[in-house]
Specification:
This protein is α+β, with helices and mostly antiparallel strands. 35% of the residues lie in helices and 31% in strands.
Length: 81
């Protein structure tokens, strides 16, 4: 069966996010002043052939650990739908 696993990759909370800061500055320049913080990440959808949702999550976790996220700078979350 084919499962869709969504991978959300975000910068670690303790690290500076230069893209987020640039977007924050752009929002301020546009007069949008009520946004407190911006963090920029990645959203990746994987179509995984697996016997169960749990097996699909295992495959996606391996992909995230080995390729999709840099554990020094990023964390990831998985959601199977």
């Amino acid at each position: 069966m084919t499962y869709t696993v969504q991978v959300k990759v975000m910068p670690l909370k303790d690290l500076l996010d230069p893209q987020g800061k640039a977007v924050m500055g752009g929002l301020q320049n546009l007069g949008i002043k009520n946004v407190g913080d911006v963090r920029i990440g990645k959203h990746i959808d994987l179509q995984v052939e697996a016997g169960s949702k749990e097996d699909a999550l295992v495959v996606a976790e391996e992909a995230a650990k080995k390729l999709l996220a840099n554990p020094v700078m990023e964390y990831f979350e998985l959601t199977a739908i």
